[in-house]
Fold Protein-export membrane protein SecF.
Amino acid sequence: MALIKKLPTDLNINFMGKRKLFMAFSALMIALSLVLVATRGLNFGVDFRGGILIEIRTSEPADLSSLRSRIGSLGLGEISLQEFGAPTDVLINIQKQDGDEKEQMKAIQLVKDELGAAVEEYRRVEFVGPKVGAELKEDGALATLFALLGIAFYIWFRFEWQFSVAALMALTHDIITTIGFFALTQYEFNLATLAAVLTIAGYSINDTVVIFDRVRDELRRYKKMEVIDVLNMSINRTLSRTVLTSVTTLLALIALFVFGGEVIRGLSLGLIWGVTIGTYSSVGLAVPLLFATNVRSSIPEEEEEGLVDENGDKIELVQENDKAS
C-alpha cells in the first residue's frame, strides 16, 4: 500500500518579509512584457489579422523551400509557411486578396491546383477578412476589460475595497505578463489563446479569493496581532491547498501540451504559463498589495459574536499578540 505524505498545513515561511522583492520582480516582468509587445508584437492568427489559412498534410516530409517557391510564383502577395507539428504537416498563411470572397476562393483554388498530388489532405481552409479581424481584436480587448471589472466589483462586494484593488492589480499583472509571454515565444495569438487569457484570470482569482477569505477570517480573529503577521500566517495556512491545486492542474495541462497536437499547443502552453504566474501572483503579489492598501479588521461589534470557522464551530477571538500555535 502506497504511503501518501501530506504537505504541512501550517508552515512558517516569511513571504511578507520578501514582499518588496516580489513586487520589484513583478514590476520588472510587466515592464519587459510591455517592451516585448511594443518591439516584437504578437503573432496574430488569421482570426485577428485577416487572410487565408490553409493547413495541409503531405505524403512525405514537406520541403518548405520548394513549397514556398511554388506558391510564391502564383503572385498572391505575402505568404508564410511553417511546419505544424509533424514534418508532413504544413501551415500556409496568405495575405488577403483584393476583392470580395470570390477572389479569396480563387486564390485558394490556385494554391490547390499548384500543389496538386503533393498534398495528401487539406486539413483546414479558413478565410477571415481584415474588418472582421479588427472587430475581433476590439471585442477581445473589451471582453478582457469587462471580465476584470466584473471580478473587481465582485471582490469589492464580497470583501472590502482594499481586496478588490489588490485582486485587480494582481490580475492585470497576470494578463500583461501572459501577453508578453506570447510576444516572446511568438506562438500564434488567436481566439483560442484569448480564451486562455480569460481562463487564466478566472483561475488566478480563484486562488486569490481562497487566500483573501483566510486573510479576512484571521484579521477578524486576531484583533491585536500585527497585520503583516496575520497576512503571512494566512498565506502559510492556505499554501498547501494552493500548491496541490496548481500542481494537479499543471499535470493535466502538460499532458495536453505534449499529446494534444499542434492545433491546441499554443492554448495549452499559455495555460501552463498562466497557472504558474497566477499561483505566484496570488501568493507573492496580491497579499503584499493588500498590505499596501492598509487593510485592517473592521467588523461591527454585533458580528463578532457570530464568527464561525469553516467547520461551523464558533471562533473565539484572540486578543494576545502571540501567534496561534
Observations:
- The first helix runs from residue 19 to 39.
- The chain is about 60% helix and 10% strand.
- The first strand starts at residue 43 and ends at 44.
- Residues 16-42+133-304 form a domain with the Multidrug efflux transporter AcrB transmembrane fold fold (CATH 1.20.1640.10).
